[in-house]
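Title: Request for sanity check on Homoserine kinase prediction

Description:
We are preparing a figure and want to confirm that the structure record we downloaded matches what your pipeline produces today. Could someone re-run it with the sequence below and paste the raw structure tokens into this thread? We only need the token string, no images.
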Amino acid sequence: MAVYTDVSDEALSAFLEEYEIGGLVAFRGIAEGVENSNFVLRTTQGDFILTLYEKRVNRDDLPWFLGFMRHLSAHGLSCPTPVVGRNGEALRELAGRPAAITTFLPGVWPRRVHLYHCRALGEAMAHLHRAGEAYVPVRRNGLGAESWGPLLEACRAQGDRVHPGLVAEVSAALDGVLRNWPAEGALPVGHIHADLFPDNVFFLDRAVSGVIDFYFACTDMLAYDIAICLNAWCFEMDGSFNVTRARLLVAGYESVRPLTAAERASLPVLARGAALRFLLTRLYDWINTPPDAMVTRKDPRDYLHRLRFHLQADGPGAYGL
Ligand SMILES: Nc1ncnc2c1ncn2[C@@H]1O[C@H](COP(=O)(O)OP(=O)(O)OP(=O)(O)O)[C@@H](O)[C@H]1O
Ligand SMILES: N[C@@H](CCO)C(=O)O
């Protein structure tokens, strides 16, 4: 359930007065998602999404995110476009929280991943990378490699309660990944989505209809976005890696932006890093979210299994490349 902040009808009506998007017809909270409070807003002019930004999103980053979405939309990517109020600003405040209205995207995210999703995803990701090229502001990845050590430290005392031996195993993997992490300048850098999971990619008629949730987007190695998707899209429910999905994902990507030899060679270490990133944020949340909170905690162990796969992958061949 991701409606942390209640919005009264009166507050919402007053808020909408500051926009030119028509009068309120219907309004409901969206249960999906874990980070922010999201609402669907129907006005006399159509459907919109209202987002109230909760604690994890740094208020100072919001202009970067909203500017990035506006830039991508203007460059042909289907993603939520921030709607400006009468004062020309997209970022406002509601119920004591930073808030923004964006356009509503049609489509459904895949509950079950099929091969056609993977190729379309790869293409869409490369379009996103290309469309982002001319966006000048930079945002450092706050969950990049240098954040993983401190995250693990924060989980050290309780990590083994989640899975016996977890802390030592993750610690050893992290040392190896950091030793082999690509040096600055070794791989092409740009703006990446950094959380391109199935629930953030909408499809209609087998084609990507839109990409949402840009609140982890940042400036980092482009191939790291691919590594995140290898983790999030290419494992079966039983934990096995589906090489065909990976091959299609990369083929879709390369139909728009071919990878360099160095990017290909780095995919195994990037995939290990991406597995660690999600393992560690999930572990942190698992330990720090009370079991009776309204949010569904995501299991860190899913990413321990993925990490183990990547650790034994000795080259891009393990990913069907
Ligand atoms: N622009 C949009 N158009 C249509 N539906 C949207 C849009 N933005 C969000 N939604 C709906 O709201 C849900 C939650 O959105 P989102 O994933 O951005 O939330 P979140 O709290 O940031 O979640 P998380 O970071 O856990 O993925 C989506 O699954 C989708 O159903
Ligand atoms: N996609 C993340 C959660 C929210 O960003 C995960 O599955 O751990």
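Thanks, this matches our download. Residues 34, 195, 197, 278, 282, 298 surround L-homoserine (ligand 2) (CB under 6 Å).
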